[in-house]
Amino acid sequence: MSIFVDIYKKLANFELSVKFEAGNEVTALFGASGCGKSMTLRCIAGIMKPDRGRIVLNDKVLFDSEKKINLTPQKRNVGYLFQQYALFPNMTVKKNIECGLHEKNPEKVQEFIKAMHLEGMEDKYPNQLSGGQQQRTALARILVGDPDILMLDEPFSALDTHLKYQMEHEVRNVISKFGKPVLLVSHDSEEVYRLSDSISIMKDGRIEAFGDKRSIYLDPKTPNGAMLTGYRNISRARVIAPGRVYAEDWGAEVSVNGNTEGITHIAAKTESVSIGGEENLISCRVDEVICNAFSYGITIVPTCGSENVMFVVHTKNLDSQVVEGSEIQVSIPRNDIITLREN
Fold this sequence. Notes:
Elements: E1 3-10, E2 15-22, E3 26-30, H1 37-45, E4 52-57, E5 60-64, E6 69-70, H2 73-76, E7 78-81, H3 93-98, H4 106-115, H5 131-143, E8 149-153, H6 161-178, E9 182-186, H7 189-195, E10 198-203, E11 206-212, H8 213-218, H9 223-228, E12 233-241, E13 244-247, E14 252-255, E15 265-268, E16 274-275, E17 281-291, E18 296-302, E19 311-315, E20 327-331, E21 338-340
Parallel strand pairs: 3-9, 3-10, 7-8, 8-9
Antiparallel strand pairs: 1-2, 1-4, 4-5, 5-6, 10-11, 12-13, 12-15, 13-14, 15-21, 16-20, 17-18, 17-20, 18-19
Helix pairs in contact: 4-5
């Protein structure tokens, strides 16, 4: 089973233009708020109509602008978990789940009540449920109808922090047994990595990069992708020679690995920056020393770079000479620096 999406829609603030294909795996649409992730799901579900393009799910054409095909949401057999779950407030848990069926089947409803650990909640209304119980009810309503694809739109954004990990565990179990395409919309880097198999990095209505999650996190391709995948130290870069660039926001020349042709930025993760060292030294000033429960966090500003750039170094043992306002050098190994190209 697979889904193919190639659509365009002009919106008030930007143009949505996405093209991707996904199989029986979890594919994350990953990007900042407002980049078009949820709009893409709405187009697939039939809630929004693209201006042009094609959407095909398991050889079933859901939308084709040239052939004037635009199936109603009811005919698409798409399971869509909204951010706020969209439960019917005047219906009980049991009645909400029954809405996912085309015809009555009490045994199947009870099967999903048990599978989602909702025993004893059957006659309660949504406002009598916790956030986690509401989500399980919404998932049961979707899955009881045996959809051809499951789409999760920021599935944990409405939950309190203490519920998120519990529900993430349950959602992982659901999608591992689903055996069909799953699309996950999120802007949470750790959540995306734990739940997805492949990732589409999105920005301003377009897909910047696509690949399996490990390759995307190791090489996110663009500055936007680097920021989303946890690279906190990003600098504009000017190539001086093969393997050598000037990091404009760090105010230093650094050595990098790989092909430098056409690069516009470089980046490194927080854990790659250390005080002292011998490779890729950058002169800095200590801005603040923060005492955590079991470690110290040190924010450092490059002396000759941008004042808006800060490195963060974590250490268990604090050197007595590292105080606010002191001049120090930090190093970033060339193996830990990635090269990026602005699309």
